[in-house]
Each structure stands twice: as C-alpha cells, then as structure tokens.
From TrEMBL:
GO terms for molecular function: hydrolase activity. Gene3D superfamilies: Glycoside hydrolase/deacetylase. One of its GO terms (biological process) is carbohydrate metabolic process. InterPro entries: CE4, Glyco_hydro/deAcase_b/a-brl. This is NodB homology domain-containing protein. SUPFAM superfamilies: Glycoside hydrolase/deacetylase.
Length: 327
C-alpha cells in the first residue's frame, strides 16, 4: 500500500480554482473514498469563499503564512514571535474567514521551504499544530524517508538551514522527498526540476511523473509527494493532461490511495494493513456554510489594492500581522 499526497500552495483565487475543479473534483480512490489533496494557503490575495469550497469538497486546508514575504531570508531569520503571528494567528484567521473548523487545520509549510531552526516547531508545539511539510531531503530518497516526530533530535539532511536541532516532542515532520529530474539531479518541488520534460509534451510529462512515483512504489512505499504550483500548470495544458492521466491511473489501483497530508500522519500513528484500510469507513466531516461578503480595503501590499471575499462579516480593517481578524 502506498499513499500519494498532491499538495498545492499559495493563495486560492478565482483563477486557480478553475484548475482545481477540473483536475481534482469528483475523484475517488479504488476503495470508494474521496481522493483528496492538501492546500497550503497563504492569506494575501486568497478568496475565502473558494477556500471554504475546497474544504467542503473534502480537501485539506493547511497554513502557508499570512504574508508569504520575500525574500527567503525573512523566514530564515524569523523569530518565534514572527512565526507565531504568521502561522498560529493565521490558523485563527483561516478558520474565521473561511468558516471551517479550527481543529481541521493541522499542518503548515513555510514559504520557499526555508526553515527557521527550532522556532517554527516550537510554535507548532505551543499552539497545537500537528505537522510541518517544509523540510526537504535529498539524502533520503531511495529508500525514501517516512514522516517522523521530533521526540528525538533529527538526523535528516538540511537543505535550507537553519534546521531544527532540538528535541520537540509531539510535533511531526512530514518530509519533502525530492524528485529526480531527467539528468539525475534532485528537486524539492516539481517546478524546481531543472532538467524536466518539454512543457508541451504530455507523454514525456506523464512518464516523468510515473518514474518518480515508481521509485516509491517499487521501493519502501513511503508516501509519494507531488508539490505543485497551479501557476506552473495553468499555462501548459499538456502538463495538466499528464497530471490528470497519472491521477486516473492511481485512482484505479487497488493499493494506491490519494490522501491528504494529515491522513498520512494519522495512518503512521496507527498503521493498519491494506485489507483493513480498504474496508474501513471513509473519512467523515460536516460541510460548513458560507455566505459571501466582499471586503475592500485601502491598504496596499505588493503593487495592488487588497480585497478579499469572506464567509464571515467583513472586518473593520485589513487583517494582517498582529491583527489577524482585522478588529
């Protein structure tokens, strides 16, 4: 048995929701349960009505920071308080404006996969977050590394230091297992694969995805992660079709299950054999309502005026660091 985790990141808005609907909606695994993806959502430019829609379709909503600030040195040097405002406060914000259960938001990914030493994991521990999906590995790809806790100091290689060096019991590392590009070089995200197939060649892209998957499938069957940016998929229909072909294949295999990052962690906590997994009840959740509110503010971030759609009443001021609900 092997899990496939399809993960998107950045804001959710009126353009990329079209791709998500086309590629992901109404998929099921061979056991009849919904095939789900994980969305690491950043606050800036997100439409919370669409975030609510993703949640109600059975996908996981996780945290990708409030500001998604550049450059990566911001995250490298981020203090405990900065991480708390960017992620712990964003959890409150996401739950409020998307009207989804606070406890359903369990994971986080730091922008640019840039770690902040022990700080992000200490925030996770103190504020009840379950797992991080920011820490990439090149050394543990074959056999691939499984998720693990920081109950003991990690021995994982550190690609974007500073990496944590303390024991922080209870929090999980869901490591990013690098893909191998066409020239044999590791790449932490699909977009980072330098020697990749031609973006207009569907067959080559399908084979590229399949080759990386098979390294896990015919190896130790550690979860296979696909870290994608919709902004890279959208301009290249051939690449989209290749992804859909791959998902069609795995959704029909008896021993492959497309699940969320949180579901992987829960299985690792309490692993069961495939015979039991295939017959157990599908994941249950209660959909939430969303009454859209269009919120406009004079505050500017980047180069354009900021607004967003909320499932809750519009805040008094623009929600931001130190004031996640805009009160």
């Amino acid at each position: 048995m092997i899990f496939v985790v399809l993960a998107f990141e950045d804001s959710v808005h009126e353009e990329n929701i079209v791709t998500y609907r086309r590629v992901l909606y109404n998929r099921r695994n061979s056991n009849g349960c919904a095939a789900s993806a994980t969305f690491f959502v950043s606050h800036l430019y997100s439409n919370y009505v669409f975030v609510n829609e993703l949640y109600n379709r059975g996908h996981e909503v996780a945290l990708h920071s409030m500001t998604h600030t550049n450059p990566s040195t911001y995250w490298r040097d981020a203090t405990y308080d900065v991480i708390k405002q960017e992620f712990a406060d964003q959890r409150v914000q996401m739950s409020h404006f998307a009207n989804i259960p606070f406890d359903s938001i369990t994971g986080m990914r730091v922008p640019h996969l840039q770690l902040s030493g022990d700080n992000s994991f200490r925030v996770m521990s103190d504020y009840g977050l379950k797992y991080d999906n920011s820490w990439a590995t090149n050394a543990y790809t074959s056999p691939a590394m499984w998720p693990y806790t920081l109950d003991y100091q990690s021995t994982q290689d550190c690609l974007a230091p500073p990496c944590p060096n303390a024991s922080i019991p209870g929090v999980w590392v869901n490591p990013i297992i690098s893909w191998i590009d066409l020239d044999g070089y590791p790449c932490s995200t699909v977009a980072a694969c330098y020697y990749a197939p031609d973006f207009f060649n569907e067959t080559e892209w399908f084979q590229f995805i399949l080759n990386n998957f098979e390294r896990h499938y015919f190896g130790n069957r550690a979860p296979f992660g696909m870290l994608l940016l919709e902004a890279v998929l959208y301009p290249f229909p051939a690449m989209q079709r290749a992804l859909e072909r791959f998902l069609d294949v795995i959704n029909n295999l008896d021993d492959v299950f497309m699940v969320t990052s949180d579901e992987v962690i829960e299985w690792v906590k309490n692993p069961v054999p495939i015979s039991q997994y295939r017959t157990q009840a599908c994941r249950q959740f209660i959909p939430t309502t969303c009454v859209p509110h269009q919120c406009n503010f004079s505050s500017k971030h980047g180069e354009r005026e900021y607004d967003f759609e909320s499932c809750n009443v519009c805040p008094r001021v623009h929600p931001w660091l130190g004031n996640p609900l805009g009160q």
